[in-house]
Amino acid sequence: MSRLADEMNKQEPDFYIQGILKGDVAILSRAITLVESTKETNLELAHNILRGLRIGTEKSFRLGITGVPGVGKSTFIEGFGKEVIKRGHRLAVLAIDPSSQKSKGSILGDKTRMEELSTLPGVFIRPSPSGNSLGGVARSTYETILLCEAAGYDYIIVETVGVGQSEIAMSKITDFFLLLMLAGAGDELQGIKRGIMEMADALVITKADGDNINKAKAARTEYAQAMHLLQQPESGWTSRTMTCSALTNDGIAEIYDMVEEYRRFVLANGFFPARREQQKLSLLKDAIDQHLKAQFYSNPRVQERLKNARPEEIADPFGFARKLLTDFLKKG
Amino acid sequence: MSRLADEMNKQEPDFYIQGILKGDVAILSRAITLVESTKETNLELAHNILRGLRIGTEKSFRLGITGVPGVGKSTFIEGFGKEVIKRGHRLAVLAIDPSSQKSKGSILGDKTRMEELSTLPGVFIRPSPSGNSLGGVARSTYETILLCEAAGYDYIIVETVGVGQSEIAMSKITDFFLLLMLAGAGDELQGIKRGIMEMADALVITKADGDNINKAKAARTEYAQAMHLLQQPESGWTSRTMTCSALTNDGIAEIYDMVEEYRRFVLANGFFPARREQQKLSLLKDAIDQHLKAQFYSNPRVQERLKNARPEEIADPFGFARKLLTDFLKKG
């Protein structure tokens, strides 16, 4: 991956910009590889490409989907994605993979899990980045969204496994938070925390088919009551609880319509553009934090000083920090 | 306060260092005022004093006490503090006041709440800082601890109102986490979150006297069961549940002994010094973060660039951050 990125680095930004604007999938993929790189020169090229694309379209919709392993995320996305295409969109499916930080494998890595969807025209599926990307999981996924939008994909699905931090990252870069749940597994078992349920714009009980239908309906009622007691999203939207089956396709079109209803709702009340703006500022703040720390801790003099810190320096951490900072900023 | 600090600024560090080492309470108080200042020159003097004191004693014990308003923190500390003095210690009582960040009043501000304790020899009570201190609530309280220890106070009580963030700040600078609870008020009512209970080394039900005794004992049993199910502290210590009455003094000596048992336990298994070390490194990390951000956002060129940021710059937050950083570090 890294050698490939180095080779691509020889191209001018304009090569990528023109390719992406034409919707060239191969060039789009290579630009995403740059975005996922951890190498400074590759990232610089990536940002020159992003700048040249004059990104910032508000015409797209970004749907975040989460749920614990086994809830049926891939199967849901396969069914839901076909509906998205049927309604006339071009769809990109991306993933935030928390495990990638430890290089532990990858969700969405196995494209065959979405065999049918991946062969449809107008669908772009990108497996998770394989390594730890500079600036956290949110950065490379966010920039991948921007590249896909510039390439003409107007419906973006971002998938993540529900394990805590990654949902927060997901909510920072998507417009809608869809939480998939299983019937009868219990909140604790599913590892779903109250905070995550409060983030959800909709909760969907999967596998509502065959013998499981009644259990799913009961779970829906139960979760609807639980959601009712939780703090509602600040958009003014009332969060929904629904069931679906990726097997029979029951409920899939209804979920698509519900998401569209949300979209009209937040466009009408101004929340949609306001939130996009707020997300960008929040990402900027995160990015500044990350860059500041990266620059500081990679500074050789700082490293030297930290390595050889005397006990009495550590005993006064705030005083020591101020001295380190003064040194760091003096000669850069 | 600020004018007073400015005046004190005219003294050399050595004036404070000698005064504190002699246990001069007036000079100690003035040094704490420096630590609580938000003015750069005052803080510089404060850190010169701290450095000169060759701080870092591990002979002290730092007890953190929290609980919601009305649980009887002051009354408990009044009774418990007298026990601490009886056992031969010199005691300093400090406060982390989350409300002070909004300049909203102050816990411990009313010294008369600890009327008897405050008149005992060997007791130093310091009200909360009145304003927002640079570097968050933890910094000035931590440095106040260091000053008090240098002045010969070997038992430090840090009090805070239980509202979330302040407990986390408290746990970063104390050795023991004591959570005060009322009987019969219910977890939700008391605003006590599971996370806070998991941080507690001991939970004490207050006001176990008169008609309230049986209710307190029942609550103790109930909380003991709840605590049993929670994750235990990483020290290896089994968290305790006790009752006490500041009115009758029942349980106060037992709580003192229990804390001493903890102290022996964590000294024997090495957790005590290891945690102190880890706390310092964690404070250093926090301090670096805070200083970096403060330096960055107060830079005039950065402020100018952020104020006049174009939409296409904000649309690529990570690219924009990297440009801002490069500018910031170039001419510092």
Characterise this structure.
The structure is a homodimer of 332-residue chains. With 332 residues, chain A is of the alpha/beta class. Chain A has three domains: 1-54, Up-down Bundle (Single alpha-helices involved in coiled-coils or other helix-helix interfaces), CATH 1.20.5; 56-268, 3-Layer(aba) Sandwich (Rossmann fold); 280-331, no CATH class. Helix content of chain A is 53%, strand content 11%. Chain A has helices at 2-8, 13-21, 25-36, 40-52, 73-86, 115-119, 136-150, 165-171, 194-199, 213-229, 252-268, 271-297, 300-307, 311-314, 317-331, and strands at residues 61-67, 91-96, 123-125, 155-161, 176-181, 202-205, 240-243. In chain A, strands 3-2-4-1-5-6-7 form a seven-stranded parallel beta sheet, with helices on both faces. The first copy, chain A, is globular. At the A-B interface, helix 4, helix 7, helix 12, helix 14 and helix 15 of A face helix 4, helix 7, helix 12, helix 14 and helix 15 of B.
Secondary structure elements and their pairing?
The structure is a homodimer of 332-residue chains.
Chain A: H1 2-8, H2 13-21, H3 25-36, H4 40-52, E1 61-67, H5 73-86, E2 91-96, H6 115-119, E3 123-125, H7 136-150, E4 155-161, H8 165-171, E5 176-181, H9 194-199, E6 202-205, H10 213-229, E7 240-243, H11 252-268, H12 271-297, H13 300-307, H14 311-314, H15 317-331
Parallel strand pairs in A: 1-4, 1-5, 2-3, 2-4, 5-6, 6-7
Helix pairs in contact in A: 2-4, 3-4, 3-7, 5-11
Task: Output the keywords.
homodimer; 332 residues; alpha/beta; Single alpha-helices involved in coiled-coils or other helix-helix interfaces; Rossmann fold; 3 domains; seven-stranded parallel beta sheet; 11% strand
